[in-house]
Amino acid sequence: MIFFKVMISGTGLQLIEQDESTIDVGFVKNEYVLAKSAKKASMVALSNVEKNISEQVRDKKIIIKNLELTVDETESSFSFWKLLLKEGIIFFPEAR
Question: What is the pTM of this model?
Answer without folding.
Answer: 0.85
